[in-house]
Amino acid sequence: MKFPPKHERLLTKGLFKSLSDKENNLAIYDVKFPVETPLENYISPDRIVEVLPFAVNGAGDIWGYLVAKLPEAPVTLFYHDDTIAEEQASDIESFFVLQLIRDAIYGTNETHPGVPKGETREHILRMCDLLRPMFSPTSMQHLLDLKNTVEQAPENYNIHPLDEQSGEQLIKSLQPQNQIFDTYDWQDF
Predict the structure, then answer these.
(1) What value does the mean pLDDT take over residues 145-170?
(2) If we measure between CA atoms, which residue out of 152, 186, 158 comes closest to residue 170?
(3) DSSP labels for 94-120?
(4) Angle at CA 176, nearest 5°, toward 167 and 98?
(5) Which of 35, 43, 104, 114 could be 25's S-S partner, Cβ–Cβ 3.0 to 4.6 Å?
(6) Which residues, at least 6 apart from 188, have a Cβ–Cβ distance to it below 8 Å?
(7) Cα 50 from Cα 108, distance rounded (Å)
């Protein structure tokens, strides 16, 4: 089973290996790459559907793809403690941009790897610069828009360098106009 094409391209470029390296300053808050632990550790075996996982969060929820929707499946968040799944981003590049926007809105904490306390702003700018060359032109533009917005924030906005209104505008720009993200019950599959 193969990941969608954009995901495969980023795998080939070594992005996920870099993100899983704790010594590396590449990091997205509360997203752990890759998923090496069996799905049964996150979801009860009777509820596992055909999921191609690629990351987990601190709560044990899984980001991945619903196999039935491959090869162009949206990135979906599969909650570990109920049967709800939410499509979050049209593709893996949009997922990364979305997570960086959320990091910029809500900030990171002092235990975030690679981000000293209070330096969310610099981390977001660094991540935009590191990811941009790996992404498609459209996603490169989204990263540039995020970077420009964060750079324009007042200097004292280091922990939360992006206000919610600006962040929501950036998030809205990520979703293709003709795409509606579904929320569904896993038990439907």
Answers:
(1) 84
(2) 152
(3) HHHHHHHHHHHHH---TTSTT--TT-H
(4) 35
(5) 114
(6) none
(7) 32
